[in-house]
Design a protein that fits this description.
The complex is a heterodimer of chains A (293) and B (277). Chain A has 293 residues and is mainly α. Helix content of chain A is 71%, strand content 0%.
Chain lengths: 293, 277
Amino acid sequence: MKRILGRQPLGLLFSSPYLAFVMVVFAFPIVYAVWISFHDFFFAAPGAEPARPFVGLDNYVAAFSNPAVIRSFGNVGIFLIINVPLTVVLALLLATALNRVVHARTFLRVSYYVPYVTASVAVVAVWLFLFNGNGLVNSLLGPLAPDPSWLINDKLAMPIIALYVTWKQLGFYILLYLAALQNVPKELYESAEMDGGGKIRQFFAVTVPGVRPATLLVLLISTVTGANLFTEPYLLTAGGGPNGASASPVLMMYQLGIQQGQPDVASAIGIVLVLGVLVIAFIQNRFVGERES
Amino acid sequence: MSRFQTVLRGVVLALGAVVFLFPFYYMVVGALQTKPDPTLAGAFPNPSNLSFDNFVNVNERIDLVSGLVNSGIFTGGVLLCTVVFGLLVGYALAMLEWRGRKATFALVLLVQVIPFQLLQIPLYVLIARDYGLADTHLGMILPFAINSTAVIIFRQYFLQLPKELFEAARIDGAGELRLLWSVALPLVRPALVTAVLLTFIGPWNEFLWPFLITKDASLQPLAVSLANYISTVAASTDNPFGAILAGAVVLAAPVVALFIVFQRYFVSNDLGSGVKG
C-alpha cells in the first residue's frame, strides 16, 4: 500500500477535494469546450437528449466568416498593443521609485492597489461619469474635447478601455515588481556605481535584467487578462460599441453563445482565443524568459 | 543621489497617487451630489448640493441590502471552501510525502494560468443546464470554490515551519488532522489573512459568472444588479450618474475598508511567493 501511495497516503486524501474541484471546474470543461466546438450543439430542455452530430470545422468557419468576430480579435489586438507595454513600463517605473522611498510608503502602496482590489463594475461607473459627453474630462478640455466623445468614438473607445484596464490592474503588477526588486543583489548596484554608471544606466544595466522573471510574469498575466476582457466593453462602451468598435472575443462569446443560443460557435471562438494566448505566451517566454542561463 | 532626482521621484509618486485615488474621491463626491455637476467646480463638494438622495434612489431600483447579502453569501461560500480545502491540500503539499504530490502541485500552478472566462460556455452548459444550478448560490460558488493562489500561499507558509516540531508531535502519537489544526494552523495565521484577502476580491468583484447564472434579481450579487442598473434602467432616472455612483460606493466600500485595515497582510512578499510558487 505504502509503496503505491507513498509514505503518507493521507496526503492524497487531504488533496482529494481540491483534485475533484479541478476535475469538475477546469479539466472536464476544457475537454467539453473542445468537444462542443466540433459538434452541432444547442441548448436543450433538461432531460432531453438531442442528436449532436459531429460537424468538423463548421463552427470555426461560421465564427470566422462573421466580420464582427474578426473585428473583436482585431480589437483585442489593439488593446494588447496599448495595454501590455504600458503596464510593464509604468509598473516597473513606479515600483522602482516606490522601492527607494522612505516616507509615506504604506500610503502610496495602498493607494496604488486600491483600483486593483475594487470591483470593475464600481470603478467603471466613475469612468462613465468622467468620460461621458458632458463629463469632467470634456468640460476641462473645452473645445479640445473629441467629437464624438471618448466612449462613443470608434477610434477612441478601445484605447480608453486599454487605458482603463492598465490603470485598474497596475497596482497588482507594482506589487509583483516590488517583490522582484527585493531579490536584485545590492552589490550589483554598488559595482555599477563604482564603474561610474548614473542612476539611469543602473536602471537599465541592473534593475531591468534583475527583474526579468517578474517582467515575464507581468507580460503573461496582462495578456491573459486582456484576452478575458468582458466587463469593460459590456458596461463602459455599452456592449462593445460604437458599432462593435470595442467588442472583445469574450463579449462575442456571450452574445453569440448565450444570448443567441449558439454555444458551439462561441466555443470555437474560445478555443481560437486560447490558442492565440498560448502562441503569444510562447513568444514572450522565448524572448523575455531564460536569457540569463 | 542628487536632490533633483529625489524631488522628481517624489513628484512622480505623488502624481501616481492622485491618478489612482482621484476617481475614488470623485465617486464619493458624485454619489453625494443631489444635482450632477460635471464641471471642475463640481469636483469640490458644495454643501448645499450634498445629500443621500442618490442612495435612496438607487435602493428603490435595486435592493442594495439583498445585493450585499448575496455578495456576502457568494464570497463567504468561496472563503469557507478555500480555507478548509485549501489548507488541507496546502498542508499535504508541504508536509506529507505521497505519490502524486509533485503532479498535484504542478496542477495548482497550471490552474492559475487557465483563462477562466474562456470556460464560460462549457461551465454554463454544465452548471446551469445539466446540473440545474442556475439561480442558486451553489451554482455561483462552485467555479470559484477553491482559490489556487491561496493554496500556493498556504503551502509556502507551511514549508517554512520547522519540520522537527511535527516529527516530535508525530512521535507523541498526534494524528495529521490534529497537527494541522493545533500545531500548524496557529503558526500560519498571517498566511490565513493574506489568503482570505486575496480570495475575497475574486467573488466579491466577479461580474461575468454570476451575471450568466442568475436571472432572478433577488439572488443577484450587488456587482450584477448594479451592472444591470447601469446598462438598462439608469437612463430613466433624473440623476443617473448620482444613483450609479451611490451603488458603486456601496459595492466598493467593504473591499476598500478591508484592504486599508489589513494592508500589512497584503505586501509584495506574500504575493510574490504566491505567484512565483
